[in-house]
């Protein structure tokens, strides 16, 4: 068990293998750190340089007089043991090994990784990696990364902590940062030779800035500990959203070559059943769920309405609500009456609400109805589909929703259902809010359901346990 | 390359009296290098090139007839450029297979095309040169290396770049090529360099009649030499095998497809008379094999000593699947027979022993159970808490054991705890252990709890729903921290245990009732496995009957046969007590059965007897309710004394009918504190 504390908050960082070739991985780690808001000391280590872009370069980490909290190793794998030994001697607290060429790359690599394990065994030096893409520190606007596209100054801080096996899927999800999904940390400990996924998980559970934890993982060692941690996250009311990958026979083989791990007996996730665990089936869902949790924290309640002016759309969404267990509670007679008055048509209105295309004639009917529904306080969540591209209607609806969103009485779930280009102005208007919007109706409803359920289960459990305690 | 691929196809016609300057302009505009000139009868009269035009312009000629070449021969479109025998013409008119003129080919075009094909040819030659297995090396008249291919580079342990231009013997040791340029004669030679052997052909190179160099082609023949020595050892092996064959006690014989003996060994010759030609008997066997296309076995008694023989004939097929050889093996079975009967005896003893043991596998064949068992196998490998649910008697403990046996912890302890059977007051110390002197009756040196005993292994918490409330919190803490605190101790101990919990109650229901903590439920329910009751998987009943019948047959030394009807009855029964009840029933049948055949009636009578026992109201005492034994005894005594007091008016009389001492009655009545009078 390793703590990640010095890894994520080092006072000084040494980049071992720093290089002038900024277009290559080794060179970019330094550039990416320079770009960031990291405020501690940066030391460069490489015996081949005296200086790199004017910064002094040490021949060895042992030559650095001051203490080194974090060393980042990015040198060819055959040199790593020697360098790690020096780091241990220097009493570096944490080491990130970005270099690859270890247990993911065959017998020689496995031996090399074993050698690294021997070196740090029983020492105070914790190793993150090897074969790691680094980590992002969204709160401090910095990170260790060799990515060619890395703009830490634009990081949008939030409450979602992401742990991913490998870099690619993690980065795909992190890109949602642009849309408004706020992160706290991204951790990806590569081959997990010392610091494991569980260590990262434990760190995020106890980290005060993280409220939601995302896991995109291939395999888990120490399963028992994982489930203990999962329960702990649940006690701390931090939802754990999981996208497990690498189940099929062939992908299990691929896992071996990716991060050098044997995944022959993977956890049968479809059987796993814990209220603290929200299982996702796509990265789309992962983003949708965590965006809801990040933006709206806990769900206020389960009372949900569908607001639409298109009949089939509202019916289809009602089907999906039924499928995913969202109850559409009946419209109060008072609201029904109000809808009749506003629209001026004799029609029995229900939930799902279909205002009909009468609103084409007078768009204020549309906006007023939405406002009335919102202000009634009868609903915690309002699903608002944009049935297809009709330009002006959609824009007006978007503007109204944007305005109402600021009042925060209910949660809006806007769904753009058109299968055309996703570039209409109505979307741009909602984008400005940085609050969740959806393109896939299934993802939207399924995620909303999981989001509501999580909060509901928590609330129920509090009630029950109170009852149990009283009955003791 | 064909002529048509290099030529200029054109239908532009020039005529004899066309002006030269106009013709020049046309050529320029249509990017042509020459033209064909026709006469007034539209016959080809001549042809001209740019060069002819230039000449004409310089000489101030006027019309094409002054400059064109009339002496020409045709080429065919389909002619191969490489095979053309060309004269000194500058331009050739071309016709196609219908002898229509389609265009012309200039010498320039010819040269360009020829260069292209040569280039390709050269590339191909180069490829051959470079990929030849043999080493090739050439020198010029001065003895300097002019080319060498990769195998030659390898053999000379150098590279082309380094070697070319160097004197031969500076690069390689054999100098035979120098002899060739000296004498102009070819020769062949074997030589050895280090451990390897080479064969070389050396040939002089001539350009026309002048000697320009020599080329050596050499081949590493170490492999061939090796193969020939290999052949030698194979021959040796063959000889050894023949010796083995002849010394084998089995008779062995190889025939061709028609049964003609090719080879046979000493033993075979002793068994059959093969002095002249194949006996018909052998031919017969070969024919049988031929007919069957696969091996053929016969039992036979030997003619001289009446020993039993087993004859096996195997076909050997060639690549086109025809029988080429038949190998006949004759074995004397006398000793074998003795061994076989011995084995049969041992087997029957062993089988008997097996049956007395419980089978290790879970007996089930219903699709639900098969699916469930597959899941169990999968879950077993993952170190995670499992919650088993199902009615009592469905086999929850069996599944728990199965999980443990298939898990990485299979070599470690498996501790079973029945939470319903441990008194509440003892449960904590039983589960978590206690320190010396923790409570009265405690052992001096303390005791390890069941969790400690299960360390590194698996703990099976049966009837988890019975865990009292205050221990639920403690249990959850143990599960979360993986450490325990013994009763009476402040020290915690780390443990590593896999928990399998089981219950026949609906835990979710208990949670709703408030008697089971929801958080503990969630923690245990990570992987829920529900085992269906026996009545929902009736396919399993016959095989369960079969398995347990065999077990009890061994135990009671009775071999009963169940009729189809009997099995039908057992299968149709509801089995509220599930597998456990079924097993008890089968045992009862074995204990009580007097016939060797168990029929419908026997089974039905057992069912009704069971029901009678359960439901009869004719009995003296009927228990309607479960209550502590002591309370029940008190109640019963009071009832009995009351009943007796109805007919008997004295303690003595009551004592007589109840067959006890009068003093006992006195004591009891006193203890019941006048309850007798009240009731």
Going by CATH, what is the homologous superfamily of the largest domain in chain B?
Answer: P-loop containing nucleotide triphosphate hydrolases
Low-confidence runs of chain A (pLDDT<50, min 5 residues)?
none
Low-pLDDT ranges of chain B? 355-359, 612-617, 675-679
Fraction of residues in H or I helices of chain A = 25-40%
The first-level CATH class name of the largest domain in chain B:
Alpha Beta
Using the coordinates shown, work out and report the CATH topology of the largest domain in chain B. Answer: Rossmann fold
- Determine the mean pLDDT of chain A: 90
Question: Which oligomeric state applies?
Answer: heterodimer
Q: Find the structural class of chain B using helix and strand composition.
A: alpha/beta
Q: What is the CATH H-level superfamily of the largest domain in chain A?
A: Succinyl-CoA synthetase domains
How is the topology of this model organized?
The complex is a heterodimer of chains A (472) and B (679).
Chain A: H1 5-8, E1 12-16, H2 25-35, E2 41-45, E3 51-52, E4 55-58, E5 70-73, H3 80-89, E6 94-97, H4 107-120, E7 126-128, E8 134-137, E9 142-144, E10 157-164, H5 168-174, E11 183-188, H6 197-206, E12 212-217, H7 223-235, E13 240-244, H8 249-259, E14 277-279, H9 283-296, E15 304-308, H10 311-323, H11 333-343, E16 353-354, H12 363-375, E17 381-386, H13 392-405, E18 411-416, H14 425-431, H15 441-471
Parallel strand pairs in A: 1-2, 1-5, 2-4, 5-6, 6-7, 10-11, 10-12, 12-13, 13-14, 15-16, 15-17, 17-18
Antiparallel strand pairs in A: 3-4, 8-9, 8-11
Chain B: H1 3-6, E1 8-9, E2 14-15, H2 20-29, E3 34-38, E4 44-49, H3 50-58, E5 75-76, E6 91-95, E7 101-106, H4 107-131, E8 135-140, E9 145-148, H5 150-156, H6 160-163, H7 168-171, H8 176-183, E10 187-193, E11 196-207, E12 210-220, H9 222-247, E13 251-256, E14 261-264, H10 266-271, H11 280-292, E15 296-301, E16 308-317, E17 323-332, H12 334-356, H13 367-380, E18 386-389, H14 396-406, E19 414-418, H15 424-432, E20 433-434, E21 447-448, H16 450-453, E22 458-462, H17 469-481, E23 483-485, E24 492-494, E25 498-503, H18 507-513, H19 518-524, E26 527-530, H20 540-556, E27 561-562, H21 564-572, H22 578-592, E28 597-598, H23 600-615, H24 629-647, H25 651-657, H26 662-671, H27 675-678
Parallel strand pairs in B: 2-3, 5-6, 18-25, 18-26, 19-22, 22-25, 27-28
Antiparallel strand pairs in B: 1-7, 3-4, 6-7, 8-9, 8-12, 10-11, 11-12, 13-14, 13-17, 15-16, 16-17, 20-21, 23-24
């Amino acid at each position: 068990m390793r703590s990640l504390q010095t890894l994520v908050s080092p006072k000084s960082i040494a980049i071992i293998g720093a290089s002038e070739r900024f277009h290559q991985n080794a060179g970019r780690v330094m550039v990416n750190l320079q770009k960031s808001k990291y405020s501690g000391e940066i030391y460069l280590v490489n015996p081949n340089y005296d200086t790199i872009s004017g910064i002094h370069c040490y021949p060895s980490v042992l030559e650095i007089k001051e203490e080194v909290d974090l060393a980042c190793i990015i040198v060819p794998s055959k040199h790593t043991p020697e360098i790690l030994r020096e780091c241990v001697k220097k009493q570096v607290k944490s080491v990130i090994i970005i270099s690859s060429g270890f247990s993911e790359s065959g017998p020689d690599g496995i031996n090399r990784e074993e050698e690294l394990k021997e070196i740090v065994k029983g020492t105070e030096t914790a190793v993150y990696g090897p074969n790691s893409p680094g980590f992002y520190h969204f709160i401090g606007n910095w990170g260790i990364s060799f990515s060619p596209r890395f703009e830490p100054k634009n990081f949008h801080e939030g409450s979602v902590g992401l742990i991913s096996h490998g870099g690619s899927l993690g980065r795909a999800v992190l890109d949602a940062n642009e849309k408004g999904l706020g992160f706290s940390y991204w951790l990806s400990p590569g081959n997990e030779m010392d610091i494991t996924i569980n260590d990262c998980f434990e760190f995020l559970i106890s980290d005060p800035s993280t409220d939601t934890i995302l896991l995109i993982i291939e395999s888990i060692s120490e399963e028992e500990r994982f489930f203990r941690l999962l329960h702990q996250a649940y006690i701390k009311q931090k939802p754990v959203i999981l996208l497990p990958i690498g189940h099929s026979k062939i992908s299990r083989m691929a896992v071996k070559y990716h991060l050098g791990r044997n995944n022959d007996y993977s956890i049968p996730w479809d059987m796993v059943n814990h209220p603290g665990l929200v299982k996702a089936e796509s990265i789309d869902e992962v983003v949708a769920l965590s965006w809801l949790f990040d933006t709206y924290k806990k769900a206020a309640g389960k009372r949900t309405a569908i607001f639409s002016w298109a009949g089939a759309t509202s019916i289809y969404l009602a089907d999906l609500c039924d499928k995913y267990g969202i109850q559409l509670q009946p419209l109060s007679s008072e609201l029904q009456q109000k809808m009749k008055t506003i629209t001026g048509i004799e029609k029995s209105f229900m939930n799902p609400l279909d205002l009909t295309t009468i609103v084409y004639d007078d768009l204020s009917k549309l906006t007023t109805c939405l406002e009335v529904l919102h202000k009634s306080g009868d609903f915690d969540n309002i699903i608002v589909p944009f049935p297809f591209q009709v330009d002006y209607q959609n824009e007006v609806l978007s503007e109204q929703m944007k305005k109402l969103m600021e009042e925060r009485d209910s949660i809006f779930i806007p769904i753009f259902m058109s299968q055309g280009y996703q570039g209409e102005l109505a979307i741009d208007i909602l984008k400005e809010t940085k609050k969740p919007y959806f393109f896939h109706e299934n993802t939207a409803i399924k995620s909303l359901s999981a989001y509501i359920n999580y909060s509901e289960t928590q609330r129920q459990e509090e009630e029950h346990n109170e009852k149990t305690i009283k009955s003791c | 390359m064909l002529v048509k691929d290099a030529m200029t196809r054109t239908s532009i016609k020039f005529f004899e009296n066309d002006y030269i300057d106009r013709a020049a302009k046309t050529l320029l505009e249509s990017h042509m290098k020459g033209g064909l000139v026709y006469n007034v009868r539209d016959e080809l009269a001549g042809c001209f090139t740019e060069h002819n035009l230039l000449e004409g312009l310089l000489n101030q000629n006027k019309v094409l007839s002054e400059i064109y070449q009339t002496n020409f021969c045709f080429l065919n479109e389909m002619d191969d450029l490489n095979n053309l025998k060309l004269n000194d013409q500058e331009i050739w008119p071309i016709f196609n297979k219908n002898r229509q003129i389609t265009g012309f080919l200039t010498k320039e075009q010819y040269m360009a095309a020829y260069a292209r094909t040569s280039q390709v040819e050269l590339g191909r030659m180069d490829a051959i040169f470079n990929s030849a297995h043999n080493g090739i090396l050439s020198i010029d008249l001065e003895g300097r290396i002019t080319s060498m291919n990769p195998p030659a580079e390898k053999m000379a342990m150098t590279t082309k770049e380094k070697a070319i231009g160097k004197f031969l013997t500076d690069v390689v040791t054999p100098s035979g090529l120098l002899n060739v340029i000296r004498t102009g004669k070819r020769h062949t030679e074997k030589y050895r360099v280090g451990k390897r052997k080479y064969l070389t052909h050396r040939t002089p190179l001539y350009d026309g009649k002048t000697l320009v160099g020599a080329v050596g082609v050499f081949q590493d023949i170490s492999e061939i030499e090796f193969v020939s020595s290999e052949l030698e050892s194979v021959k040796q092996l063959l000889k050894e095998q023949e010796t083995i064959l002849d010394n084998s006690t089995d008779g062995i014989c190889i025939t061709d497809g028609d049964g003609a003996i090719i080879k046979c060994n000493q033993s075979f010759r002793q068994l059959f008379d093969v002095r002249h030609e194949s006996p018909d008997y052998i031919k017969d066997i070969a024919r049988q094999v031929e007919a069957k296309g696969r091996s053929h076995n016969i039992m036979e008694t030997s003619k001289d000593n009446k020993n039993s023989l087993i004859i096996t004939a195997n076909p050997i097929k060639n690549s086109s699947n025809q029988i080429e050889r038949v190998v006949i093996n004759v074995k004397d079975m006398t000793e074998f027979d003795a061994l076989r009967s011995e084995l049969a005896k041992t087997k029957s003893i062993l089988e008997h022993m097996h049956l007395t043991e419980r089978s290790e596998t879970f007996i089930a064949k219903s699709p639900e159970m098969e699916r469930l068992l597959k899941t169990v196998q999968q879950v077993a490998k993952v170190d995670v808490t499992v919650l088993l649910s199902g009615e009592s008697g469905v086999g929850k403990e069996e599944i728990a054991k199965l999980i443990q046996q298939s898990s990485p912890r299979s070599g470690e302890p498996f501790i079973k705890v029945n939470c319903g059977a441990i008194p509440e007051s003892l449960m904590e110390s039983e589960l978590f252990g206690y320190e010396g002197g923790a409570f009265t009756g405690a052992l001096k040196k303390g005791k390890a709890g069941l969790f400690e005993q299960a360390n590194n292994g698996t703990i099976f918490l049966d009837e988890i729903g019975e865990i009292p409330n205050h221990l639920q919190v403690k249990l959850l803490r143990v599960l979360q921290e993986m450490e325990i605190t013994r009763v009476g101790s402040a020290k915690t101990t780390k443990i590593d245990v896999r928990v399998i919990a089981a219950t026949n109650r609906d835990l979710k229901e208990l949670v709703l009732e408030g008697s089971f903590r929801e958080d503990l439920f969630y923690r245990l329910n990570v992987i829920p496995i529900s085992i269906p009751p026996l009545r929902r998987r009736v396919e399993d009943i016959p095989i369960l009957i079969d398995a347990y019948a065999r077990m009890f047959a061994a135990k009671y030394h009775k071999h009963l046969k169940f009729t189809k009807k009997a099995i039908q009855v057992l299968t149709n029964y509801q089995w509220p007590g599930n597998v456990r009840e079924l097993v008890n029933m089968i045992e009862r049948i074995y204990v009580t059965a007097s016939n060797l055949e168990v029929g419908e009636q026997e089974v039905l009578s057992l069912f009704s007897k069971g029901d009678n026992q359960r439901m009869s109201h004719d009995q003296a005492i009927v228990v309607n309710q479960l209550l502590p034994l002591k309370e029940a005894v008190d109640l019963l005594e009071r009832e009995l004394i009351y009943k007796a007091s109805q007919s008997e008016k004295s303690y003595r009389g009551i004592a007589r009918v109840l067959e006890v001492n009068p003093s006992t009655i006195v004591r009891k009545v006193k203890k019941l504190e006048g309850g007798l009078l009240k009731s």
